[in-house]
Specification:
Layout (H helix, E strand, L loop, with lengths): L3 H12 L5 H12 L8 H18 L5 H13 L7 E4 L2 E4 L15
Antiparallel strand pairs: 1-2
Length: 108
């Protein structure tokens, strides 16, 4: 499954002109069609944001220059906070945490 970092890298390649739009669209289509199964919320959000921008471009609502600008904003946007659970000094990944454990959100 594709990861958030892999999508980010390919997006950066397009934005920096190291790959053309057609190749980028092909890569996105092939590699993110089932991103919702990857259990990676960041990858899913990024893929959907890219697909939305590509759709705006393909429908003629924005030019390729506007597309690049929009995708730069997507790439540079602050990722969602990561959460850890703090309980009696132990740390666990948030998704695996027990609902009964007091959750303290810390942005990493």
């Amino acid at each position: 499954m594709v990861s958030h970092s892999q999508i980010s890298e390919e997006l950066a390649r397009y934005i920096n002109g190291r790959t053309d739009l057609d190749s980028f669209e092909d890569w996105i289509a092939v590699n993110t069609w089932n991103v919702h199964l990857a259990n990676d919320a960041e990858a899913e959000r990024l893929a959907f944001a890219i697909e939305e921008s590509l759709s705006e471009h393909s429908s003629g609502h924005i030019s390729e220059l506007q597309l690049r600008d929009e995708l730069k904003r997507v790439l540079l946007s602050v990722p969602p906070a990561r959460f850890i659970v703090v309980s009696l000094g132990s740390r666990q990944n948030y998704p695996e945490a027990s609902a009964t454990v007091r959750r303290v959100a810390l942005q990493l």
